[in-house]
Structure formats: structure tokens, C-alpha cells
Amino acid sequence: MTPFRRDIVSKSLAGVVLGFALALALVGLFARLGPQGLEGGNKYQLVMWMIAPIWLSVLAFVFLFRSGLRAWLWLGGASLLAHGGLHACRLLLH
Description:
- The protein is elongated.
- It has one domain.
- The chain is mainly alpha-helical and 94 residues long.
- It contains 3 helices and no strands.
- It has helices at residues 8-33, 43-61, 68-93.
- The longest helix has 26 residues, at 8-33.
């Protein structure tokens, strides 16, 4: 029987919290930079439905990190980068 790893809670929380933040930023970037910008026909529905698969993918792959700290750092950095890109798009394209 394999021993229980202590960082599984930390990795799970990183996947839930930062994965959701990352998914929101990525779909926001798609909404801004995708075809027809924010004015696309049914784009809001597509963007809304894209959040769950991206979030769950991050949550599934978060257990590949070696430690919970690495998961928090990498996902936090990716989330900050994506939100920075989203903010830059908002400033430059407005």
C-alpha cells in the first residue's frame, strides 16, 4: 500500500483555486482575442462552456507537480501572467 502524501491537499487546493483563476483568465483572453472579438455571435455561450473543461484539466494535471508548493507557484505564476495579459488586452484594445 502506498503511503498517503501530505501535499495532496495543497495540490488539490491549488488546482481548485488557482485552476479556476487560470481558467477565467484564459477564456477571457479567448473572448478578447478570438475571432470577432467580444462582438461574436454566440461567443458568450462558448466562453461560458470553456471554463469547466479548462478548470478540470488543470485540476487533473495538478497532481503531476512534485510538491504542493511547486503547484502553487507555477499555477500562481501562470494565473498572474494570464490575468496580466487580459488586463493588457483590455487597455490596448479598448
